[in-house]
């Protein structure tokens, strides 16, 4: 079921979704992004520099937020016209198959012309907001 | 100093070289090769399945052997016409900056026509042969 511009209004909530991120995802993302910072794949070093665990690349979490909005808007990544976030907390990723859960929710802030809406996104890991001021402008069918 | 076809004979030894392989190399190789097998980057799982540590991708060690021959032959990877190895032991990679050392040595087995020679390569990690029957046919200047 795809939302349409006509079916949403200010305050319409996006159905929440949880995406997981595992150590394997981070190893793959390191290769794909070229960001091989050791805190994203080596727990010994991550803890030695004061981190709670290996942490996810911030851009990975941002990408998940983009996926959240894109899926809601019908699946076309090209529908996202504007997208910005502030990274407010880390996503620690435990060394197991389940990894970390990042919960996404959001609501429509404003309806714009041209079938576009502005969406406010909230991302939480373990109850903590990991993205703030996460906003996307997206074109709806 | 590049070797030349005229300057080598059967039994000529390649100057030995040691190449290191670190955990970071394996994370990068995973992304580059698409081989994300967990035994190449997760020590907990590697040990739980009976391995001595995270181990290097066999193809990574083979690639190092290829580099060894290529550098000896003047640097052109296209000079290697034939290349085969048998993987005889694992290369465990410790979780530190130094990683594992793989020592390469070799000698000319045979001179062929067309400025080509067949080279026998030995690769050792911690004194153990990790590649056997490692042979390359390479064209020399």
Topology record:
2 copies of one chain form a homodimer.
Chain A: E1 13-21, H1 23-33, H2 43-48, H3 58-72, E2 80-87, E3 100-111, E4 116-125, E5 128-139
What does this structure look like?
2 copies of one chain form a homodimer. Chain A is an alpha+beta fold. Chain A has 3 helices and 5 strands. The first copy, chain A, has a 5-stranded antiparallel sheet with strand order 1-3-4-5-2. The longest helix of chain A has 15 residues. At the A-B interface, α1 of A face α1 of B.
Adjacency order of strands in the biggest sheet of chain A: 1-3-4-5-2
Instruction: Using the coordinates above, name the CATH class of the domain at 11-21 and 56-139 in chain A.
Output: Alpha Beta
Instruction: Report strand % of chain A.
Output: 35-45%
Which range best describes the helical content of chain A: under 10%, 10-25%, 25-40%, 40-55%, 55-70% or over 70%?
Answer: 10-25%
Q: From the alpha-carbon coordinates, what is the Rg of chain A to the nearest angstrom?
A: 16 Å
Question: Helical segment tally of chain A?
Answer: 3
Tags for this model:
alpha+beta; 141 residues; elongated; 36% strand; Thiol Ester Dehydrase, Chain A; homodimer; 23% helix
Summarize this, please?
The structure is a homodimer of 141-residue chains. By secondary structure, chain A is α+β, with helices and mostly antiparallel strands.
